Amino acid sequence: MSFFTDTPRALAVSPDRNTVYVAGFKTGNQTTAVIEPRVCPGFKPNTPCINSDLSVSPGGNPGPAKNFEGQQAPEVALIVKFNNGHWTLGR
After folding, report:
1. What is the pTM assigned to this prediction?
2. Taking a C-beta distance cutoff of 8 angstroms, is the pair 11, 26 a contact?
3. Can you give the C-alpha Rg of the chain in angstroms?
4. Nearest-angstrom CA–CA distance, 63 and 31
5. Cis peptide before 64 (omega within 30 of 0)
6. pLDDT 10s digits, 50-79
7. Are 82 and 30 in contact (CB under 8 A)?
8. DSSP string, the chain
């Protein structure tokens, strides 16, 4: 088995135990995670918000905001990528 990182930091196994997920440290792919409290509430990725410490967060999750049953999706962290001098959604 090989990993696309030289420094694995966390491992997780899928519920069916057929897949191992690896979180790499300093992989060089120019991505990072934004913790959930720093993501704007709601599902408006292009609408910035001001946090309690007066810092500005760039927007909310891209969605979908609800599942096929109409249940509200949870607020979660985001993976962002550094593109052309600024952070964007990791696409």
Report:
1. 0.61
2. no
3. 16
4. 19
5. yes
6. 988 898 887 889 989 999 999 999 999 988
7. yes
8. ---S-SSEEEEEE-TTSS-EEEEESS-SS-EEEE-GGGSPSSS-TT--EE-TTS-EE-----S-SB-TT-PBPPP--EEEEEETTEEEE--
Q: What is the rounded CA–CA span in Å between residue 65 and residue 73?
A: 5
Place of tokens 């500005």: 56
Residue 41 CA to residue 50 CA, distance in Å, equals 11
Task: Look up tokens 């999706």; give the residue.
Answer: 73
- With CA atoms as reference, report the closest residue to 27 among 82, 86, 66: 82
Tokens 């979180």 appear where?
Answer: 23
Burial (CB < 10 A; 0-12, 13-18, 19+), residue 10, is exposed
> Of 4 and 42, which is predicted with more confidence?
42
Residue 69 corresponds to which tokens in the numbers above? 């049953």
